[in-house]
Amino acid sequence: MKKLSTKEMKEIANQIISTELANYNLEANIYPVNIFEYYTKYIPNANFENKNNFINALKMPMTTKGFTFWHLECKTEKPDIVVFIDYFKKYKNPILDLIKHCFHEAKHYIQLTVDDYDYIKFIRNLETILTEYDWDSYINCHDDFSFEIEANIYAINKTKELLKDKYPNIYQIEKSNIDNIEKNYNLDYMLFDAIEQFDKLLHIALLNKIILINTYPVFDIFLNNINGFKAINDIIKNPNLKDLDERIVYTVLSSNSFLKSIDMEKLSDIELDTLNKSLQYTYNIYINQFKFILNSFNNNAINLNYFTQIKNVLIEKIKNINGYITLLNSAKDSKQYQYEFIKNRLKNNNVKIL
Questions:
Q1: Distance CA 227, CA 59 (A)
Q2: How far apart are CA 39 and CA 157, in angstroms?
């Protein structure tokens, strides 16, 4: 295939992103630019909400192939989708990576349109704060973030469809490469840990004195105005809980931050039952992740070093959650024992038991 010119690459980026967004009745300001155009034309005219966003934008060409930027102070305004064309010129066959990246950035905008009480949006919101205040961790662990994992999987699937339809020769050449990319993205998806991200968020909020209830509405259900946790009973009684994806509750209540803040012996039966659902859900996730990496290792999808590393991490997570489940069961057993003891005493004294 002949080398694509900058103009041709810009046309491809514009067409893919605008067409994909139109499927969701969305529009964006699309900027396929080279690095020089980015610093001389885009940055001077961009509208950043704060200093952190501006500084991170300055770093973008050094760390990524593009980005989606949403103007938070004006939700009706279209987001900016920037694609750095220079990055794709170095590839022998740049069209695969260019197309994949365009679908990736389009997906980032689509992700922003879901309701705040949706699980994906909850994770997206907390990770948005993480990226703003801990940029280096985001760049070093880019594919560990859920919104990147989701965009990666979406992009590779859409890219396969487009290549098969419009560029079948390129698809045949790149098929093996695409399959490997897809396996890696699926591995990232299977090993994602929302609880770990939530714990990181609370740590970042403490360091940077961010009051989380001032950021996104979901945090109001679980936290007070000093980022402390509300009682489980208050969380259960919150009228907004009915609109919440249960996975959000499981994530918060299974976090180390939350579990270290409570005394299980002082929890009521309904509070213990709510906590038990969360811990059992999380325990099952870690067990399934363990089975997944074991199967991947047995099928030569991952090497020994990677398997050993992930296996050890998961064993620690399983031990940790299992420890809390043991504490919870002890608390429940204690309450049940007390209840049976009191019931027998009342029965022996001829008090009617309902």
A1: 30
A2: 32
Q: Average pLDDT, stretch 272-293? A: 95
The answer to whether residues 29 and 80 touch, using CB atoms and an 8 Å cutoff, is yes
Q: Which DSSP string do the residues of 296-318 spell out, in sequence order?
A: HHHTTSS-HHHHHHHHHHHHHHH
Q: Which residue has the higher pLDDT, 276 or 339?
A: 276
Q: Cα angle vertex 165, ends 102, 97, to 5°?
A: 30
CA-wise closest residue to 106 among 3, 185, 35, 16: 16
**Residue from 135, 34, 143 nearest 85 by CA:** 34
Output the pTM of the full model.
Answer: 0.84
Q: In this predicted model, what pLDDT tens digit does every residue of 234-266 receive, in sequence order?
A: 999 999 998 899 999 999 999 999 999 999 989
Instruction: With CA atoms as reference, report the closest residue to 232 among 261, 205, 256.
Output: 261
Q: What is the pLDDT of residue 238?
A: 94
What is the identity of the amino acid at 258?
A: F
Residue found by looking up tokens 């259960």 in the block: 236
- What is the average pLDDT value for the chain, to the nearest integer? 88
pLDDT of residue 74: 43
Q: What are phi and psi of 68, to 5 degrees?
A: -115, 125
Q: Give the Å distances, CA to CA, from 145 to 11, 284, 285, 303.
A: 30, 21, 17, 22
Going from the C-alpha of 115 to that of each of 95, 111, 146, 181, 230, the distances in angstroms are 34, 10, 16, 30, 23
Nearest to 216 by CA among 110, 109, 123: 123
Q: At residue 23, what is the residue type?
A: N
Pull the structure tokens for residue 56: 């991170």
Mean pLDDT value across residues 10-17:
96
